[in-house]
Amino acid sequence: MNIIDSHKLQIILKESSETLSFLQSVLPQDDLSSELAGYEISKLLKKQKQLEKEYAQLVQIRTSLTGIQNKKQLIEIQNKIVEVASNLKESTKKLCRLFKENPDIESDSAKVQRDRREFMKMIELLIQMVQNGSIHKFFNMTTQELEEQDKLRKLIQMEKELCNDIKQLQVDRLNETKEYEQEQVEINLKIQTFKEKLLYKKNRAYAKNSYREKEKRSEESTDFRTFDIEQKHIQDQIKNLQNKIDTENQVFQELKDFLVKKEEQARLSSDEWEKKTQILKLKLEEKIEILNKEKEKCTEELIKLRQWQEEIEEERQRIERLEIKEAKQKEENQLNLIRIDNALKLIQQEYIEWKEQGGGKKKSKGKKKK
């Protein structure tokens, strides 16, 4: 950069610095409406935090209430959750409207003054660098700041994305709340239906039980009447049986007396029979002794007869052996005769055949040649 251009740049930068200094000396005016809006916003923020805390506590209590015994408390907590969610939604809408209508002027003015001071410092630094001829350092510093600003833009973009995600989560929460409310309505309808069915079944069961109770009572009265009739019949049977028992006892007593008499007679007759049996026993013993003696004699005779029979059997076997031997000898002689006869016949037949073939004739001698 030449001297003229650097001089022009210095003049422009000095004028800009003086203008910024003059603007800094101008004080911002106080705005009463902005203070009131800030008070209202802070009040709504406190209320918003309280509602969020209450909503979280109610949700935690709802998760801990399980079982039929806590059904009533669960319904109350659900109603409170719906009410708090509605209030939270209204509070969020009010905050958004207030932030849109009343921006933060004090913070904005402070930021403007801070940026202005920094900009003035940068201008003074640039003037010094132009005077010293080291403007390339300013270029490097500017490039570095631009890179940092690029990082800042990325962070801002990430913040926007996070805000969008938060909004989406809020929308999802509202949708889930609506779905939950719809499910609660359906569950309440089902509960009402089940209650009606239960009431119908209870009434029906009560009617059935009443009918059965009346039926059982009628059956019971019928059973009592039947029991009375059977009881009378049984009493009559008992009387008849008692009469029969008396008759049987009388008959038994008479039979007993009769049997006692018969027993006495039998005892007397048994004594007589015992005496007779003793006499018969003695006679039989004598007969047995005689028979035993005869048995011994017969046994001796039997032994002799058995010996004689054995001798006869041995003689018979000896004779049979001799007869068998003679028969075998006779058969052998007959076989020998048959063999001799067959041999003679064979010799005779062979002799005849030999004769027929010219055996025994002399052969004629042939004439001698002269």
Automatic annotation (TrEMBL):
Give start-end ranges for the coiled-coil region(s): 152-186, 231-332
Name where it's found. Cell projection; Cytoplasm, Cytoskeleton
Chief site of localization: other
* GO BP term, pick one: cilium organization
Keywords of the record, alphabetical order, are: Cell projection, Coiled coil, Cytoplasm, Cytoskeleton
A single cellular component GO annotation:
cytoskeleton
Q: Does the keyword Coiled coil apply?
A: yes
Q: Which PANTHER family match?
A: DYNEIN REGULATORY COMPLEX PROTEIN 9
This protein's name: Uncharacterized protein
Q: Could you tell me which species this protein originates from? A: Ichthyophthirius multifiliis (White spot disease agent)
